[in-house]
């Protein structure tokens, strides 16, 4: 089968492309925004990616058009179609489907699907769980919204019955407004957490809770739901009805709890120590992710002790506190290197969690948080008031305000001189360079390519001299 994927460079659609190619299908695709790591993965797989959504692509005549949720019926200012290829498909009556639907019908049927849902931590927990099952010899398939460093690819068919998938609550397609995860029909479902997000498609938290309950409705009676016991929102989801075994984690009264520091902790099941995790990851959020992964893996027959051993070899995911480089400022010794990190955080809670994890790691070292509010929710300004809270533990914050419809300076005003706003990436780099000091930790946070800011920062910092100004 030849499939042509519209919006192929999204993390989900790019992973689907890799799976389809591995399954023996011919895969091509198109997109408007192409950036790493997905662009690198598609190139390495030999999948042809066409720039834009031109109607001339109908001449490819694939067996099926697979439509990503970036596609819409939107019009440009001059009245022309924003996605002319989609209009051509509709005008000609050609066969099309959504990515989740195609995946469900062609690759997930008959498999033990493990779906990892939640506002935060989906990618990391999906990667953890995939690695645990792989370590245990189950040879799982997986589709992760990022590139797990243990595997080097975001998706793999696997040879075993298990398939682990990052289960997003975002809508499926312009013609199917259900959440993606209702298509997966998991036997094991992880509900990591639940906050308000995706303000472009959900009116309030209750609307998202309803979608999570739709997911629970698809879990078999002999399945397992692994739920964060700290989340009131998830308690409300369960109260709507649950027909499967439930295992909780995180809260003092949960089935799975942790004792110790996030990088070295005992795992307790119903109060009895069953494993110990010692690893390089930090942050309470990763400790909770680990508990969720251990509880889910147990449902597939992997003992917590073995799961913990696997986690000790877990290498995290690209763009999850990934060190992009270390440089010495002009005239400074290597002992005073400045470290630049890349992280996917884009929701205020995720930003706060990322900065907190780094704070635990670097102690009193200076943290410079560089971020862009680029998600649809953030661009709408729905959570702008939470930004000062999310950046509390950063010494300085630098915001890229390009493309926003709200005043970032006003939103960050409570931070005073600790916050700076710039309307371009180049100006932001200059601001960071002017403020940097030896030994600083610079974490760049965005859910997109951020205009290549990491390389620009590293290059600029090599010529920088230490800032003489005191910390505000």
Any chance you could write out the topology, listing elements then pairs?
Layout (H helix, E strand, L loop, with lengths): L1 E5 L4 H12 L3 E6 L6 H7 L3 E4 L12 E4 L16 H9 L3 E3 H10 L3 E6 L4 H14 L5 E3 L11 E2 L5 E5 L4 E3 L2 E4 L8 E4 L13 H13 L6 E5 L3 H8 L5 E5 L6 E6 L2 E6 L2 E7 L5 H16 L4 H8 L10 E6 L10 E6 L4 H15 L4 E5 L4 H4 L7 H4 L5 E5 L7 H4 L7 E4 L2 H11 L5 E5 L7 H9 L11
Parallel strand pairs: 1-2, 1-4, 2-3, 4-5, 6-9, 6-12, 7-9, 12-13, 13-14, 19-23, 20-21, 20-23, 21-22
Antiparallel strand pairs: 7-8, 10-11, 15-16, 16-17, 18-19
Describe what is shown at a glance.
The protein is of the alpha/beta class. It has 15 helices and 23 strands.
Total DSSP helices:
15
Helix share bin: 25-40%
Instruction: Assign the structural class, choosing from mainly alpha, mainly beta, alpha/beta, alpha+beta, or little secondary structure.
Output: alpha/beta
Number of extended strands = 23
Looking at this structure, what is the CATH superfamily of the largest domain?
Mur-like, catalytic domain
Q: Which blocks of ≥5 consecutive residues have pLDDT under 50?
A: 468-472
| Structural domain count | 3
Q: What is the highest CATH level, the class of the largest domain?
A: Alpha Beta
How does the major sheet shape up?
7 strands, mixed
CATH architecture of the largest domain: 3-Layer(aba) Sandwich
Radius of gyration: 22 Å
> End-to-end span in angstroms?
61 Å
Mean pLDDT, nearest integer? Answer: 91
């Amino acid at each position: 089968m030849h499939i042509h994927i519209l919006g192929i460079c999204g993390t989900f659609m790019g992973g689907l492309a890799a799976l389809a190619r591995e399954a023996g299908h011919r895969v091509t695709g198109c997109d408007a925004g192409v950036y790493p790591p997905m662009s690198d993965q598609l190139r390495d797989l030999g999948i042809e990616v066409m720039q834009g959504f031109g109607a001339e692509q109908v001449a490819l005549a694939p067996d099926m058009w697979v439509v990503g949720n970036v596609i819409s019926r939107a019009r440009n200012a001059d009245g022309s179609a924003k996605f002319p290829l989609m209009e051509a498909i509709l005008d000609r009556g050609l066969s099309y489907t959504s990515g989740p639907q195609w995946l469900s019908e062609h690759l997930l049927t008959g498999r033990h699907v493990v779906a990892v849902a939640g506002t935060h931590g989906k990618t990391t927990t999906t990667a953890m769980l995939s690695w645990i099952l792989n370590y245990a010899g189950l040879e799982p398939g997986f589709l992760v919204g990022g590139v797990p460093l243990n595997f080097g690819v975001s998706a793999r068919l696997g040879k075993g019955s298990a398939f682990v998938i990052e289960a997003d609550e975002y809508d499926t397609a312009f013609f199917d407004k259900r959440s993606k995860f209702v298509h997966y029909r998991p036997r094991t479902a992880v509900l990591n957490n639940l906050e308000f997000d995706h303000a472009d498609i959900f009116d309030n938290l209750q609307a998202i809770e309803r979608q999570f309950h739709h997911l629970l409705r698809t879990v078999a009676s002999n399945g397992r739901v692994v739920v964060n016991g700290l989340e009131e929102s998830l308690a409300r989801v369960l109260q709507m009805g649950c027909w499967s075994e439930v295992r909780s984690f995180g809260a003092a009264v949960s089935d799975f709890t942790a004792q110790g520091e996030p990088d070295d902790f005992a795992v307790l099941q119903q109060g009895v120590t069953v494993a110990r995790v010692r690893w390089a990851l930090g942050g309470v959020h990763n400790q909770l992710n680990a508990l969720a992964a251990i509880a889910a893996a147990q449902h597939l027959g992997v003992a917590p002790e073995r799961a913990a051993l696997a986690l000790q070899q877990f290498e995290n995911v690209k763009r999850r506190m990934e060190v992009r480089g270390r440089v010495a400022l002009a005239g400074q010794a290597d002992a005073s290197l400045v470290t630049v990190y890349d992280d996917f955080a884009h929701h205020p809670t995720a930003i706060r969690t990322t900065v907190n994890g780094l704070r635990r790691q670097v102690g009193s070292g200076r943290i410079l948080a560089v971020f862009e509010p680029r998600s649809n929710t953030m661009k709408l300004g729905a959570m702008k008031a939470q930004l000062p809270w999310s950046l509390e533990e950063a010494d300085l914050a630098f915001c890229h305000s390009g493309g926003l419809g709200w005043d970032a300076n006003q939103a960050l005003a409570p931070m005073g001189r600790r916050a700076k706003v710039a309307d371009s990436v180049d100006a932001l780099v200059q601001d960071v360079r002017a403020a940097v000091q030896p030994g600083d930790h610079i974490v760049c946070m965005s859910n997109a390519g951020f205009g290549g800011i990491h390389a620009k920062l590293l290059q600029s910092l090599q010529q920088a001299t230490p800032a003489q100004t005191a910390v505000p």
